[in-house]
Design goal:
mainly alpha
Length: 127
């Protein structure tokens, strides 16, 4: 099944990585909330995500979304294993920067600053 690519002619993307809150804009039409099935809701994990275009686009494949969300929650919210939250977020910010995703880098850099005792250093880094 093919979906038309969306354009956002009024969008002015940032020209550098930032910790600012950025609007996420889909390239494909997110699933309308009215089309959610129980399988989609299970994939979303949190009902509030039905209001997010990002998660509603991912909901087009609810099984993958569910696996992605459970993995994400284990990476960032598991207090019993792994690095402290600040280091997890800093690693994700660096990875997003390397991958070229301005949106994800901004999200993870903000969380790294929030959870970190060295927030001022993160705010100066070229995320």
């Amino acid at each position: 099944m093919s979906h038309p690519t969306l354009s956002h002619p009024d969008n002015v993307p940032p020209d550098a990585f930032t910790q600012a809150v950025l609007d996420w804009l889909p390239w494909l039409e997110p699933l309308p909330e009215s089309e959610l099935t129980e399988r989609h809701r299970t994939g979303l994990v949190d009902a509030s995500r039905a209001k997010s275009p990002y998660f509603m686009l991912l909901a087009r494949d609810p099984d993958i979304l569910g696996a992605r969300t459970r993995t994400d929650k284990d990476i960032f919210y598991n207090p019993d294993a792994g690095l402290p939250r600040a280091e997890r977020e800093l690693s994700a910010a660096a990875t997003s920067r390397y991958n070229g995703c301005i949106y994800c880098a901004s999200v993870h850099a903000r969380f790294a600053s929030h959870f970190s005792p060295w927030a001022s250093t993160i705010s100066r880094s070229p995320t």
